[in-house]
Every structure is written in structure tokens, then in C-alpha cells.
Design brief:
By secondary structure, this protein is an all-alpha fold. The protein has 4 helices and no strands. Helix 2 crosses helix 3 (35-42).
């Protein structure tokens, strides 16, 4: 799809975290990740291990989707 920009997993997770009105402490308690890890990830200072990214994605109800299976909403 020319002209389409797909978010990376990192971008999608970071966007969800940064737009969450809850504090890092609250998200940490709800996800089991540490506040320090969440803050460092949100600030772009650290990446997340894949198992932690999975947990955060599940919390924000994010999933990978094969591009060819995507249905575009205009």
C-alpha cells in the first residue's frame, strides 16, 4: 500500500503508553512490569524484552496483523 505508514511494534506500544491517562505506577501494577522499565521505554531510553512487550500489548489490546490481511478503513 503506497503512502501507508505502519507503526512498528515499538511505536504502537509507546504510543499506547504515552496516551494512557494512568500513571506509570498504575500501569506497572496492572501489567506486572516495573515503573522504571515503563518510564525508560516511554522515553526511548530502553527497549522491552519480547515477553514484556507481549504483556504490554495484551494490556492495551494490541495485536500484530499481517499486512495482506488488513482491512482498511477510509
Amino acid at each position: 500500500m503506497p503512502g501507508r505508514h505502519f507503526l512498528t511494534m515499538t511505536e504502537a506500544l509507546r504510543d499506547a503508553l504515552l496516551n494512557d491517562p494512568r500513571s506509570y505506577n498504575q500501569v506497572a501494577k496492572l501489567t506486572g512490569l516495573t515503573r522504571t522499565s515503563l518510564m525508560a521505554f516511554a522515553e526511548g531510553k530502553r527497549s522491552l524484552r519480547l515477553d514484556l512487550a507481549d504483556r504490554l500489548a495484551a494490556f492495551y489490546q494490541l495485536a500484530l496483523l499481517r499486512i495482506e490481511d488488513a482491512k482498511w478503513v477510509n
